[in-house]
UniProtKB/TrEMBL annotation:
GO molecular function: RNA binding
Transmembrane segments: none
InterPro entries associated with the record: PPR_At4g14850-like_plant (IPR046960), TPR-like_helical_dom_sf (IPR011990)
Protein name: Pentatricopeptide repeat-containing protein
GO biological process: RNA modification
Length: 72
């Protein structure tokens, strides 16, 4: 994305997570999660719910539960 000069924002973050969950690509989803943490998008409810959805679809139930419990 940096090479393409695409600006990372909360809409793109959510879109990437939904794409990762549709592809069952948990590793790439974790990378988008880390990027959201760095840019402080994690407090957004839309972002949090997309991350939980990705974890559930990838079979990471314990991770999804932890994230659900951390929602503000």
């Amino acid at each position: 994305m940096i090479c393409l000069r695409i600006k990372y924002n909360f809409v793109l973050s959510s879109f990437l997570r939904k794409s990762c969950s549709a592809l069952f690509d948990f590793d790439s989803g974790k990378q988008t999660h880390l990027q959201a943490l760095v840019l402080e998008f994690e407090s957004d409810l839309f972002i949090s719910s997309a991350l939980i959805d990705m974890c559930l679809k990838c079979g990471k139930l314990s991770d999804a539960r932890i994230l659900f419990d951390e929602i503000p």
